[in-house]
């Protein structure tokens, strides 16, 4: 996972999240920061109308 995290440093618009579920289970997420920001902005605009 460290290798992946190090490689993603070259992609500042992608966030890397790691969750341990216990034992051998884990979850990895790759989040497009631009998409999240755009989605939050759309929600704010919808709430104002």
Automatic annotation (TrEMBL):
The protein's name: Uncharacterized protein
């Amino acid at each position: 996972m460290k290798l992946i995290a190090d490689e993603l440093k070259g992609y500042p618009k992608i966030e890397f999240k790691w969750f341990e579920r216990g034992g051998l289970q884990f979850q990895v997420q790759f989040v497009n920061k631009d998409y999240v920001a755009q989605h939050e902005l759309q929600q704010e605009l919808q709430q104002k109308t």
